[in-house]
Amino acid sequence: MGLISLKTYIIPSNIEKMCCTIKVMLKDIQDACSCISEDTLFELKVILNELLSNAIKHGNKMNELKKLKVVSGLTTDSRIFFVIQDEGEGFDCRCYESLIDNSNNPCFDFDNLKETGRGIYIVKELCDRVIYNEKGNRVIAIKKLL
Questions:
Q1: Predicted pLDDT at 119
Q2: How far is Cα 68 from Cα 52, in angstroms, rounded to an integer?
Q3: Global pTM value
Q4: For 3-19, how does the pLDDT look when each residue is reduced to its tens digit (9 = 90+)?
Q5: What is the structure's pLDDT at 88?
Q6: What is the side-by-side order of every strand in the sheet holding 3-12?
Q7: How far apart are CA 21 and CA 104, in angstroms?
Q8: HEC states along the chain?
Q9: How confident is the model over 51-80, as a mean pLDDT?
Q10: pLDDT in tens, 81-132
């Protein structure tokens, strides 16, 4: 697996700047992979919006002095990946992973998830793989484009 594109973005913990950066990232992705569909671009926008806003709100606690480091890559086997790291203390991602892993359980009730837990579930559904580091302040999201 080789790389077609690799970009790094440093973002202050500011929702407005996050939205501008997502637009730039999506443009960079389109430039690197011109055959990407509008539906896939929309899914990537949702993934980035959820993961970056979680990092800003929950990780960095909206502290604009803290930054997010975002790496975006496109591989030769048509996968895109995002690595998002905040400067926060992290969270116990095992709780969310066990919740998400139980989503195939017939008793799983998406409507009763806390509002703050839905984004992670949505990202998991849109991606092929979502991996958190042990500390819980870095996430890797991988999605097959074709």
A1: 85
A2: 8
A3: 0.87
A4: 999 999 999 999 999 99
A5: 95
A6: 3-12, 67-75, 79-85, 138-144, 129-132
A7: 34
A8: CCEEEEEEEEEECCHHHHHHHHHHHHHHHHHHCCCCCHHHHHHHHHHHHHHHHHHHHHHCCCCCCCEEEEEEEEECCCEEEEEEECCCCCCCHHHHHHHHHHHHCCCCCHHHCCHHHHHHHHHHHHCCEEEECCCCCEEEEEEECC
A9: 96
A10: 999 999 999 887 776 555 555 555 554 455 555 555 678 889 999 999 999 9
Structurally, what CATH architecture does the domain formed by 3-144 represent?
2-Layer Sandwich (3.30)
Residue 66 neighbours by CB under 8 Å, 6+ apart: 12, 13, 60, 86, 87, 88
Q: Are 126 and 79 in contact (CB under 8 A)?
A: no
Q: Which residues pair with 139 in a beta bridge?
A: 84, 132
Domain ranges of the chain: 3-144
Two structure tokens written together for 118: 């839905």
CA atoms within 13 A on the CB side of 106: 0
- Amino acid letter, 95: C
